[in-house]
Design goal:
The complex is a heterodimer of chains A (287) and B (309). Chain A has a two-stranded antiparallel ribbon with strand order 1-2. Chain A contains eleven helices and two strands. Helices cover 73% and strands 3% of the residues of chain A. Chain A has 287 residues and is mostly helical. Chain A has one domain (14-216). Chain A has helices spanning 2-32, 39-56, 61-84, 92-114, 138-160, 162-172, 174-179, 184-209, 216-231, 237-253, 262-276, and strands at 128-131, 134-137. A two-stranded antiparallel sheet of chain B has the order 1-2. Classes of the chains: A mainly alpha (287), B mainly alpha (309).
């Protein structure tokens, strides 16, 4: 029983990471209207930039992470402006396929620069705390705390600030928003900065809780898609719930079935959701 | 690498993967379906062939079934298996559209990959099945690689012939009607959902055959060979060649195969430089892909042509 509880708690940490990784993806999907497969590669860019600054250049973790997140954020915007914007009129399918090409370019670039092998950050080993026989590390707690913080601040941002409201307006109906005086271009810029920045943050978390290899980014996109679809492609808040569901389901499943099947759980969820409830948990029908 | 071996490799794999690109062309350009799980049907074909032809398990083998059947039976079962898998995956998913269909097919391919990797009873898990049987056809002193190049060419030609026949028939015209205006097609009594399903299943069969041929050529099937990279490869080839014509699909595939073989043929001093070359190959492939979609190269050519007419 305590083993099950242990998997459950680990699942919460996995889920929190998935929330961080997926929120940016869902935000782009909502505002820009397509599935950006290259989003996961941004996690890799950020993770390896943190690693480079932290291990190779010898910076402390916090400044390395900050720089990595900022660079990733701008990088995401640059890609959007140079690659995605000019073909926006061709529809979401072409954008989706293009983003696969972008993922190839970024993934290949990271591969060429970093090379094969397994890497870890130069940070203290995780301290393990024990509550009622359940172990949890300080890094896991940090991921959970950051996910919660991100969720709350994003909600505040989207509901209280002008830019946030503009983002929601454009997401709901871009033409109508434009006719009411919302600067669509500026809003789209803010969206790309925020979503890529969140990818950067998730990348830093990945670098902290996992050992890094260059194919790690690609493995994330599968889980990100699972969470995004379960949440419903049109919703942000349900990302939090579905991130936890996928994370917990994946980790708890290890109790009954071999660990190799963990990714399969995520995909079983995708298939079941798309078959029975294509609109996702949020209940809103995506157009 | 000598020129002859290079040309044979290009011909073999160019034709082999052209079969996949052509099928994808039929599904996407004609049927309007985005199939992001192409590799799954390919893998089913390869594994079906291997399971039918291999000998019953012995020693360290963990797989359960080895029928030790003749190669032609394995080849047929590969086609049937791919069609069955298409029925299994297409029936529930084809009512989904556009990106949702892309994601579900992608998910199915990942699930299959995960099964092949973890379920050792199918094909030894991550180790795969080695020494897949090759058909014992050999003419006097013609090397095997030539036989397989011809076989790949034949498979491609047959696929083209069949697809052409389908597209030229009233059925093909109905498909075009569905693609151009679904509602209008439905209004004149075409069963759109059923047609999409049929196209999906029909076009999976040659992919299965190609999988069987691939298994014969490599004499190895393992989950490593059937990752999402194959799907992306075929998609890039399709986009590279322009999605409208069969010739474009074939030329795109061959161009991509030539590109890869050239990069692989370069001799490298160190492991590191070889690895960089592989990454750069990845980057270039992606960049070509993005550029072609960005400037809509083929749309422009066909536009210019229609202007000239």
């Amino acid at each position: 029983m305590s083993l099950l509880a242990q998997y459950f708690v680990t699942g919460i940490a996995t889920g929190s990471f998935l929330i961080l990784a997926t929120i940016g993806f869902s935000l782009t999907r909502q505002v820009e209207g397509f599935l950006n497969i290259a989003h996961a590669e941004l996690l890799g860019v950020s993770a390896f930039m943190t690693w480079g600054l932290n291990v190779l250049a010898g910076w402390p973790l916090l400044p390395s992470a900050t720089v990595a997140i900022a660079v990733t954020s701008v990088f995401g915007l640059v890609i959007a402006r140079t690659v995605y914007d000019p073909i926006k009129k061709l529809g979401p399918a072409v954008l989706l396929i293009t983003s696969v090409g972008v993922a190839y370019v970024i993934g290949g670039g990271v591969d060429a620069v970093i090379g094969t092998g397994i890497r870890t950050l130069d940070i203290p080993l995780a301290t393990t705390y024990k509550f009622y026989g359940i172990r949890v590390t300080n890094y896991q707690l940090l991921v959970i705390a950051l996910a919660a913080l991100t969720g709350v601040s994003l909600a505040l941002f989207l509901n209280k600030t002008n830019t946030g409201l503009a983002i929601r307006a454009v997401a709901a109906n871009a033409e109508l928003a434009a006719s009411r005086g919302v600067d669509v271009r500026k809003t789209s810029r803010a969206t790309w900065l925020i979503s890529s920045g969140l990818a950067g943050l998730a990348g830093v978390m990945l670098a902290m809780i996992a050992t890094l290899s260059t194919d790690i980014a690609f493995h994330q996109i599968l889980k990100i898609l699972a969470v995004a679809i379960l949440a419903g492609l049109g919703s942000l808040y349900s990302v939090i719930l579905s991130g936890l569901i996928v994370g917990i389901a994946m980790d708890v499943s290890v109790y009954w079935i071999p660990a190799g099947y963990r990714p399969l759980i995520a995909f079983a969820i995708v298939i079941i959701v798309l078959l029975f409830r294509p609109q996702g948990l949020s209940g809103r029908r995506a157009a | 690498m000598n020129v002859e071996a290079f040309l044979v490799a290009v011909l073999t794999f160019g034709c082999l993967f052209s079969v996949l690109t052509l099928s994808l062309n039929l599904q996407y350009a004609r049927g309007g379906m985005i199939n992001f799980g192409t590799v799954a049907y390919f893998a089913v074909g390869a594994y079906a062939y291997a399971i039918v032809t291999q000998e019953p398990p012995s020693g360290l083998d963990q797989y359960l079934i080895g029928l030790n059947g003749p190669w032609w039976l394995g080849f047929l079962v590969a086609g049937v298996g791919a069609a069955c898998f298409a029925i299994l995956t297409g029936w529930p998913t084809l009512r989904l559209r556009g990106e949702y269909l892309a994601l579900t097919t992608f998910a199915f391919a990942e699930v299959l990959h995960s099964f092949l990797l973890n379920e050792r009873r199918i094909g030894n898990g991550s180790v795969g099945l080695a020494n897949v049987e090759r058909p014992g056809i050999s003419w006097a002193d013609v090397p095997d690689s030539y036989v397989f190049a011809v076989a790949a060419l034949l498979l491609m030609l047959v696929t083209i012939a069949v697809y052409r026949r389908i597209l030229a028939s009233p059925y093909g015209r109905a498909m075009d009607a569905v693609r151009d205006d679904e509602m209008a097609a439905e209004a004149v009594g075409k069963d759109v959902a059923r047609m999409r399903f049929e196209v999906f299943v029909i076009s999976a069969v040659p992919i299965g055959f190609a999988g069987a041929l691939y298994a014969m050529i490599t004499t190895l099937v393992s989950p490593d060979l059937f990752t999402a990279e194959v799907t992306f490869f075929v998609w890039i080839a399709l986009v590279l060649g322009g999605e409208r014509t069969m010739l474009g699909a074939i030329l795109g595939t061959i161009a991509l195969v030539v590109f890869q073989e050239v990069v692989r043929g370069i001799p490298f001093e160190t492991v590191r430089s070889a690895q960089i070359a592989a990454s750069v190959e990845h980057m270039l492939t992606g960049a070509i892909f993005v550029i072609i979609l960005r400037w809509q190269v083929f749309e422009r050519i066909s536009f210019a042509r229609s202007q000239a007419e």
